[in-house]
Task: structure prediction
Amino acid sequence: MWKDFPFYPEQASTIAQPVDLLYFFLVAVSAFFALLISVLIVVFASKYRASRPNPVSAHIVGSNKLEVIWTVIPLGLTMIMFAWGTVLFFDQSRMPPDAMQFTLTGKQWMWKVQHPSGQREINDLHVPIHKACTFTMTSEDVIHSYYIPVFRTKQDVVPGRYSQLWFEATKLGTFDIFCAEYCGTKHSQMTGKVTVMSQEDYERWLSGAVANETPVQAGERLFTALRCITCHNATSTARGPNLAGQFGKEVELASGAKVIFDADYVHESILNPTAKTVTGFQAGLMPTYQGQVKEEDILSLIAFLKTYGATTPAAGAPAK
Amino acid sequence: MKSTVLTPPAPAAHPPQIAKAKTNYLTADFGWKSWLFTVDHKRIAVLYLVSIMVFFLIGGTFAILMRGELLTPKGDLFDADTYNKLFTMHGVVMIFFFLIPSIPAVLGNFLVPIMIGTKDLAFPKINLLSWYIYLVGGGATLYVAISGGIDTGWTFYAPYSSTYANTNVAGAAIAVFVTGFSSILTGLNFIVTIHKMRAPGMTWFRMPLFLWAQYATSLIMIMGTPVLAITVLLLALERTFHIGIFDPALGGDPVLFQHLFWFYSHPAVYIMILPGMGVVSEIVACFSKKPMFGYHFIAFSSLAIAIFGFVVWGHHMFVSGQSAYAGFVFSFLTMLVAIPSAVKVFNWIATLYKGQVSLETPMLYALGFIGLFTIGGVTGLFLAVMGLDRHVHDTYFVVAHFHYVMVGGMVMAFMGGMHFWWSKMFGRMYPEAMAQFAAVVIFVGFNFTFFPQFILGYMGMPRRYHQYNVEFQTLNVLSSAGASILGMGFLMTIAYFVWSLKWGKPAPQNPFGAKGLEWERAPSPPPTYNFEEGDKIIVTEDAYAYTSEEPAVIAAHEVKK
Amino acid sequence: MSDHAHSTYGLVHHFDDLEQQKETGTLGMWSFLITEVLFFGGLFGAYAVYRSQFPDAFQVASAQLKVGLGAINTIVLICSSVTMALGVHAAQKGSKNGIILGLIGTLVFGAAFLVVKYFEYKEKWDHGLIPGYHFNSHGTFDSLHAGPAQMYFALYFVMTGMHAFHMVIGMILMFWLIAKARKNYFREGHYALIENFGLYWHFVDIVWIFLFPLLYLVGAHSGAGGAHHG
Amino acid sequence: MSGHHIVSVKLYFGVFFALCALTFLTYWTALHDYGAFNTPLALAIAGVKAALVILFFMHAKYSSKLTQLFAFAGFFWLAILLVFTLQDFMTRDLLPFYFWPKA
Result:
């Protein structure tokens, strides 16, 4: 009968089982304390009831020993929960290096996904099984939250910024995608289905769908079309820093601060180039591309910059 | 009638003590002016009681309508916009106009001066002003509800609220802004009163724990509320003039709004629960006829909660785009703030041990509070553990958790406190058997309503959903059914309370044999200046002196056996 | 501590003695100032976050302010604080005329501050620097800085506006206090009202002490725009 | 006790001149480029000025411990707000570390 009344959703990703284990641990601790307290209330309330013959209250005002015990034990338990949960969370927050790179844009009230191979989908998502998939996500309007319960994962999608999420599906089937952050009228209809397929089915599905250029290809095309390479090259007279092989590395700014050359940095530098100028280069040379490039274009450029330098050494040797 | 027939009242004709005994704060003066311009803290408490009950009924109506909609997976009772307005208005009304002022402004206002043995709060006029500010804020909220409503959720997250919503966000922001000052003034009044107006002999560690809780609550009110005020003001400005402060197009960060919002709104959760803990401490000690176990620990845990409560707000934002390291810090501190709450629960239980426990209505509510708050508290840990929060954040699990704390905790404590001090406030007893029945109905209805939501949440149903998947229906129907039981319980309670005002048994000064100045020195109801004229309050014993040192030897002896 | 020369003049019914009443008022005022610190604190928080994110834009935007005017206003406000302190001093000494003189001085300096502020605001208005849909209508900022510069000016106007609002409230209260002082209300040691008002006024001064470097001085050394007075 | 200590007029004027001097100092330092130190310097000077006002004009130096605690509490809570908000923004560029290396 538990099949009809499940207490947890299907476990369809690598992270699902560890999350459920932690959940069961917390449920067990909670149940223990809830039960302990209920039993103590019932026992004390009946054993020491005022209606018993000759009731008398004992003069007990406290016990430091007991206070220490019931401070230390819950503290120990919560520290276990904290450590366990934090390890899980950090694992979920750090993107696996050799994963399939999806991009995702949320808008009222739909999810727009692009596959590494260039296919686009709206609301629905097809992913191969046993393959880590990372999502670089942003929003065109308000905050949304990409939530797939069976994968036990969720991440807010914030306008003007990039957030990331990854999972590795472990179960074939079709599952729900929800928007978990309230986003307006049709918030409850901003849903979709994720279909987990075998590698062959996924490839068949890809070939059946209309193939666009991949984000990397689109990014490379834009990189050329926008003439980025004119300044951002490896020559000694280059007016901008060479971008090849830079993604994910630390760069030093004119202000002396250091930032990670990541999606947010790329986004900011394209729309607001003077915000964080790399040391040794003149600020204000680069024009803003605000209004010229769309959010999805920037996502493509990011996808390209991730591979740039690694796959096209001819375009410019890595900086150091 | 001829004026010559009238004779001026001759006070000398009556023996003075009888005349005095008959005049209490309710009968001291008559007419609407005597209420609207009163500076008597007890009358202001009654004004607050009436007004928060109005908002409680309004907020409750929104809740019942929502549960009606959620009976079926399809959105068939209301359209999506109406539903979104319903849950927003439910949240705004219940939080800002019921939960936050409930115990502080009603029971706190009534009891703080009496419990410390003084005539009034430090600033009586400011106290009245706070009620008027509350009314203005409440009126503005009702106006917003009628004129287009508001559909952002009570959290007002930008940029939806600042740019995209088509409802009266600016109006609601101003309403919340205004109401905040009512809360600030109440808190300020309590802090100063407790510091400066205690009767001779009423040292800090002789104060009833209710006062410690009120003091801690007041700290949060004056430290947190101003930040909310400026945040919603910025939101209203952004909304009206598009100044750009939370606008991502200009480089603004919507997550900043969340930081500023939760800087208040997380501690506000403690505004909503700490006074409840204070009430429960009073009730548990009285109905166990035993001194509070670990008095100092309960007192200091209130302060610890108030202070640590300010550095945990980021646990609402683990998946918001906040940095993982900030989440790490906030998660850790949240674990620490759980400890003082646990300490309180264990101390309450230990107080029952070897006492004389009687289960009158206030005690039923207090014991219900301890159980439900425990569940509400430990499920809070699920949300504070980052790895788990990624799954349960913004699902019905959250909804269930905070209703266990807010309704299972605060509302239970409020009900317990109202039953406990009802006789003191109005001089009449509530009907005991009926009240015990209603308490059980509320307890059962509450659990039916909110327990299924824990499962719904873990199954993945997001909150604020107008439509939902078919597989969630069973649990939702259960929840809606429970809500109707809960609603009946509340209506029953309100009905017999109103009934008792006229037909209830006249109350003795101390019907429960409780300790404390309000029971031992003040009549029911108290006169305008709280104590009989000429009754100089000098406190000589600790709070909850239900037992004396004498039987301690026996008790210690028994413990050893 | 209350000595017997003190009558019960001004004692409100629910206090035991004047000493308690006075301490209560003082503590109430300090509690209120805590709320004020945190009220402005939300704005300082927003400022800190955006300043750290857009240091360059804030520098360029700040250069649009007239540092000289800000500095003059700082001195003006310090003067008003001194006259306020002298007013309280007079109250402690029981000098009715001293109180009135102190309050009038404070009022005059406060008014001078607001006049300067008016001209500053007007200049921003004339240059299209009011945040909103028409911000930067004169093209003061290039498209790179326009967004964060608007946020800077949003903060500038809300922070200085809230500060000016507090001053206006204070000045209204001063008229009331002067009227009371003329009726010799503050006598026999019953001057807590003046003292507490003084605390409020000094707090307003403190807010400005922080606003001045944070808003005016950010771009002073960059030399961009009209940073230098005269 | 508060209100019983009367600050001399001379001291008020001393504080006044100190405040004016510090205002000039902060203005003067702002005209020079000290790189990353301009803002901390300006805030430090502002802090000293605020302390002078609180201690002498607002009589905090001569007030009860309780009043001093209240004066401190507001700024302490402000620090909580600033520090805990900024810790998010300051650590956003850092990648979450692995607790143990992944295979």
In short: The interface with chain D takes residues 195, 223, 227, 253, 255-256, 259-260, 263, 310-311, 313-314, 322-326, 329-330 of chain B (CB under 8 Å). Confidence is low (pLDDT under 50) at residues 1-20, 551-561 of chain B. The two ends of chain B are 79 Å apart (CA to CA).
